[in-house]
Design brief:
The chain is built from two helices and nine strands. It has about 180 residues and is of the alpha+beta class.
């Protein structure tokens, strides 16, 4: 890290064991992704109620190239649990960020339009006819919201296409409107 770790405790003295745990967790993050430029951890003490203390608050703020990642967690069970939850959340955010930086995050594909041209309900599959005259295979499991049973020839759909073993196939099929059955 370019800047040293900053730990702030609000309204109480942070115990050395928790401070050491926070430092260890930040070192783990820094080992996972060496381009973290800064990390600030703020720990808030519970508001005292007459019977029981309130939740501990832990806020972790990581500075990475072109972005700031923040995780806030409140936890009734205790400070160690709040620290664990906050660092689990920031770790997931950092992992997502790193995948995005490496280009491993899939861009959402635009869904194409088609109509059901062939349907085999007993076998659980059908074909879609696209505007450009292609036939695309689809399986009942590709149809969202259990829509396969409501499909008929002519039903309008949107779909995502990928290359299957035997040619193009629809991996996600969304019914736009049901075609009136004749």
């Amino acid at each position: 890290m370019q800047r040293p770790l900053k730990i702030t405790a609000r309204d109480f003295n942070l115990n050395p064991a928790i401070e050491a745990e926070i430092t260890r967790k930040v070192e783990d993050l820094d080992n996972y992704y060496e381009r973290i430029s800064g990390c600030e951890v703020t720990v808030g003490a519970p508001v005292r109620h007459h019977r029981k203390g309130g939740p501990f608050e832990v806020r972790v703020r990581l500075t990475v190239p072109n972005r700031e990642l923040v995780a806030n967690r409140q936890f009734e069970e205790g400070l160690a649990a709040a620290v664990r939850e906050a660092f689990d959340a920031i770790r997931r955010q950092l992992e997502d960020y790193v995948r995005e930086q490496r280009g491993a995050v899939k861009a959402h594909e635009e869904m194409a339009r088609a109509r059901v041209s062939e349907l085999s309900p007993e076998e659980g599959y059908g074909f879609l006819a696209t505007d450009d005259g292609r036939e695309i295979y689809f399986h009942r499991n590709s149809v969202l919201h259990d829509g396969f049973a409501r499909m008929a020839i002519g039903t309008e759909v949107r779909f995502v296409e990928e290359e299957g073993e035997k040619g193009p196939q629809a991996t996600t099929v969304v019914m736009l409107r049901e075609h009136p059955k004749r």
